[in-house]
Write a structure and sequence with these properties.
The protein is α/β, with parallel strands linked by helices. The chain has 13 helices and 9 strands. It has an 8-stranded mixed β-barrel, surrounded by 4 helices. It binds ligand C2E and magnesium ion (2 copies).
Length: 285
């Protein structure tokens, strides 16, 4: 029935046991997700964001992790979509915002924290109140908080949403556009909305070495960012060769397995503190 509702045209779909099992799993995840917060099964992991010139950590992106007691690790790509469909994303998003600000207070004070915000939180929820409360409750400096929104946020742009983004900026929080180049890439909203950073999607980094077109695209996004006076970061950097090309293009910031996987806050703190060890001490160790 679910498949048929989603299918255009006749609305007729033949039952197949595999999709039946998939749907049963999705329903199970949906039912359990409501309890996951109360049962303390959700965590935020942090992936370092670095300055490409020297690899120094400048901040970290908060990424949700859910360890289901029976199903094991469930990907955020799966449960965030379910949470968006059933409305739980507002609670989940508010929890992530508060937890990320709390964790960031234990990071080196020069590090920023980036938090993903679903389009639904911007459309329906009171994201401004959520952010204001998280900042007030934790005492995090607003300029250390960055909000990541995706292009799909702009599929149904409204004055109300523009108002919310402006209010967030007025709080002193910055805004990054995530997964740039994968969705509905219209230039219209770049001029209309107060963005501070573009995150080039990993798809372009993945094909950087073999595909001249990807290099050209990243290069022009760099030119675009320079013109707009905003920052650019490339996601999904896995090899030194990719980092080298990006440095040559003039990309200043990067994120990816080459610099660090998403990890518990304690590990990120240790990683960042390791950078501060004076050279003489490091040599003795
Ligand atoms: P995203 O925001 O674009 O996050 C980047 C994803 O790329 C993360 O996947 C990260 O683990 C992965 N990644 C980072 N570096 C590399 C790399 O070098 N190679 C490869 N292959 N992958 C890399 P993850 O953690 O599975 O998250 C997937 C998506 O789930 C996120 O994409 C984001 O859209 C969503 N998500 C995660 N946490 C939250 C959250 O708190 N709120 C909302 N609304 N969405 C979230
Ligand atoms: Mg993100
Ligand atoms: Mg992304």
């Amino acid at each position: 029935l679910d498949e048929a509702r989603r299918t255009n045209g006749s609305g007729l779909v033949k039952f197949d046991p595999e999709s039946g099992a998939r749907h049963a799993a999705a329903r199970r995840i949906e039912a359990d997700l409501w309890h996951a917060l109360g049962r303390d099964e959700l965590r935020l992991f942090y992936q370092p964001q670095v300055r490409l010139s020297d690899g120094k950590i400048i901040g970290a992106e908060a990424l949700l992790r859910w360890r289901h007691p029976e199903l094991g690790f469930v990907s955020p790509q799966v449960f965030v979509e379910i949470a968006e469909a059933n409305g739980f994303i507002e609670q989940l998003g508010a929890w992530a915002m508060l937890q990320a600000c709390r964790d960031a207070m234990t990071f080196r004070p020069d590090l920023a924290v980036a938090v993903n915000v679903s389009p639904l939180q911007l459309q329906r929820g009171d994201i401004v109140a959520t952010v204001r409360q998280a900042l007030r409750q934790t005492g995090l400096r607003p300029d250390r908080l960055q909000i990541e929104i995706t292009e799909s946020t702009f599929l149904n742009p409204s004055d109300e949403m523009l108002g919310k983004l402006s209010d967030l900026k007025a709080l002193g929080v910055s805004i990054a556009l995530d997964d740039f180049g994968t969705g509905y890439s219209s230039f219209g909203y770049l001029a209309r909305f107060p963005l501070d950073k573009i995150k080039v999607d990993q798809m372009f980094v993945r094909t950087l070495i073999d595909n001249k077109a990807s290099q050209a695209i990243v290069q022009s996004v760099k030119t675009l960012c320079r013109g707009l006076g905003i920052a650019m970061i490339c996601e999904g950097i896995e090899t030194e060769a990719e980092a080298a090309i990006l440095r040559r293009i003039g990309c200043e910031q990067g994120q990816g397995y080459l610099f660090g996987r998403p990890q518990p806050a304690e590990d990120l703190i240790r990683l960042a503190d390791g950078e501060n060890v004076p050279l003489a001490v490091a040599a003795q160790a």
